[in-house]
Request: fold
Amino acid sequence: MKTLTIVAGVLLVFVFVWERVDVIRVGYQIERLKTQKVLLERERDQLQVKFSALTAPERIAKVATEKLGLIPPQQGQVLIVHQPGDVPGLPLPSVEQVRLARHDSTGRVSE
Reply:
């Protein structure tokens, strides 16, 4: 009976030590995950700033004109197409009023 008590006591000590080691291990893992969370939040914030800068209308207009050679449309070049029944009574332009503008390789606009 005495050996059974000693074995049970040793077993309880091992379980207690194992549990304490596991608590410490989980604590380190939690701290590592907290650090990773902070780094990911910083990266997210930086990406949001970059996204805002890249999608700013002023920047898009600048890239369109300087790098792509686009120009704002002239009056009469924009045609809004509505599906039948969308806007009742809206007169559509005749075929003669619709013109296409094209850019050639020099950047000149021709009709």
